[in-house]
Structure formats: structure tokens, C-alpha cells
Amino acid sequence: MADDALDLSSLADDDLVAQMHDDLYDGLAEEIVEGTEILLERGWSAEKVLNDALVEGMRIVGVDFRDGILFVPEVLLAANAMKAGMEVLRPLLAETGAQRIGKVVIGTVKGDIHDIGKNLVAMMLEGAGFEVVDLGINNPVESYLEAIEEHKPDILGMSALLTTTMPYMKVVIQSLVEKGIRDDLIVLVGGAPLNEEFGKAVGADAYCRDAAVAAETARALVTARRAAAATTP
Ligand code: B1M
Known about the structure:
It is a single chain. This protein has 233 residues and is α/β, with parallel strands linked by helices. Helices cover 56% and strands 11% of the residues. The chain has helices at 13-25, 29-41, 46-66, 72-93, 116-127, 141-151, 168-178, 196-202, 211-231; strands spanning 102-108, 130-134, 155-159, 186-190, 206-208. The chain has a 5-stranded parallel sheet, sandwiched between helices. Helix 7 links the parallel strand 3 (155-159) and strand 4 (186-190). The longest helix has 22 residues, at 72-93. Bound molecules: CO-5-methoxybenzimidazolylcobamide. CO-5-methoxybenzimidazolylcobamide is lined by residues 55, 58-59, 61-62, 65-66, 72, 75-76, 79, 106, 111-118, 120-121, 157-159, 161-163, 188-193, 208, 210-211, 214. Residues 55, 58-59, 61-62, 65-66, 72, 75-76, 79, 106, 111-118, 120-121, 157-159, 161-163, 188-193, 208, 210-211, 214 line the site of CO-5-methoxybenzimidazolylcobamide.
């Protein structure tokens, strides 16, 4: 830290969180890591740091991106800063003593390179006891199908952040139907422009508003499916 730099640890919680929103906006990864560590040392839960400091900071970035105040290079820096903070939280969010309760293949759909939300969902799923195979971004149907064939997951998760890429989820689900494997899988979808109605329209089992809901839904649907299988003669 330079001599004239702000000492983050001297700030009260509220001021520190506000400062982190500014630092995220300015793409300052080191400061975001430091702020994240300070809040954890002060006893904040990983979920609270994530939601109040990082996700809220990114929401503010999103508003100015939409309004043409911020542009792609600045938003990329903000995204990198957010990812740096998420790396500090990763072991805490993914921490679980429980046995693996199922497997998830997850990826962002073709044409879409947004991965922050999908990465968060993957972390929360790990934390909920799932083994997660993360296919990354920009996935065509073929990469989902190959991963399903190879990993035999209980759940397929798809993420889309653009109104232009979200319809691709239907393409993927339709190809599962054509291959006769749709009912072997629970399909969960998520991403900022989606909603419940869209999830139903594309034939997903559930739309997940956020990472916490994704983890809860995954657990509930896998448990229900196992219970149904156990009672089927
Ligand atoms: Co993009 N971008 N972007 N962008 N970007 C949005 C999505 C946008 C809403 C910004 C805006 O205008 N306000 C807008 C989309 C408009 C629309 O389609 N209606 C937009 C646009 C237009 C674009 C470009 C086209 C811009 C351009 O080039 N002119 C371009 C497209 C590139 C492409 O994908 N082909 C583009 C590029 C980028 C960057 C590369 C600069 C960067 C991405 C970096 C990265 O991800 N590595 C970026 C970013 C960062 C954003 C915003 C600002 C933030 C997204 C984010 O990370 N949010 C975003 C504005 C916004 O959403 N407020 C925006 C934080 C994250 C925690 O939330 O991703 O919603 P979210 O995930 C949540 C839930 O949605 C849910 O759980 C997550 C955690 O709680 N969820 C799931 C997500 N996936 C799930 C999957 C599941 C379950 C739940 O599976 C089971």
C-alpha cells in the first residue's frame, strides 16, 4: 500500500463496504481482496461479504454500463476485481463436510461470455455438496452433450446473461429431448434476464434466481428424484 493510500482497515464496516463498491467500480483487484479479507476477519460471513460488498458493487457497475457511462474495458477490470474477491471467498462458500450428493455439469451458453454469476453458482453448488464440472463460457450444444456423456451428471445447469443468448437454452433442451435423455437429467437455468416463465417455456425443471436458490433447488430436486426412484417398483 502506498503511503498516501487509504487504510481500509481504519474504516467502519459501512464505509469499508462503500469504499469497496468504489474500488470494484475502479477495477482495483488488490483493494477488493484486502477489503474482503478485512470483513471476514471482522466476523462477516462469506455470503454477507459476497452479497453486500461484491454483488452490490457489480450491480452499480451494471447500471452505469447500461447507461453508457462505463464501457467494456472498464467493466472487464471490475469483473476481474470481483473475481479476485470471489477467490478469497471460494473455499468458504465451497466448504462442506458432507458427502457428495450428486454431480452437476454447468456452463454459459453459446454466444455468451459472462461467467461471474455461473462461477458463483458453481461455488455454491460445491458448498451444497455437489461435484461440479464447469464447462466455462460460450458452449454449443455439442459441448453440453459430450460432457453429459462423459460425466453422467444428475443436473445440467445453464447460464445466460444476454437476451440474445438465452433462447439457446431451448436449443440445448430440445436436443436432449431428441437424444432421448431429457428425463435422465434435472435441468436448471439462470441468469439476470431470465424468469420463471422463461424457464417453463424452454422446458427446464427450474429457473434459479440466484446462486443460493440454485443450490437449494439442486439439493431439493435431486433428493426428490432419489426418493421417487426408491419407491418405484
Ligand atoms: Co455484459 N451485459 N456485455 N459484460 N454485463 C450485461 C449482462 C448487461 C445487462 C449490461 C447492461 O446493459 N446493463 C447487458 C445485457 C443486456 C441484455 O441482453 N438485455 C450486457 C451487454 C449488452 C454486454 C455486451 C453485448 C456489451 C458489448 O459488447 N457491447 C457484451 C456481450 C459479450 C458476450 O457475452 N458475447 C458484454 C460483455 C461484458 C464483459 C465481458 C465486459 C463483462 C463480463 C465479464 C465476465 O463475466 N467475465 C460484462 C459484465 C460484467 C456485465 C454486467 C455489468 C455484470 C454481470 C455480472 O457479472 N453480474 C451485466 C449487468 C448486470 O447484470 N447487472 C452485463 C454479477 C453476477 C453475480 O450476477 O451474472 O446475474 P449474475 O448471476 C446471478 C444470477 O443471475 C444467477 O445466479 C448468479 C449469482 O447469484 N445465475 C444463475 C446466473 N447464472 C446462473 C446459472 C444457473 C443458476 C443461476 O444455473 C443453474
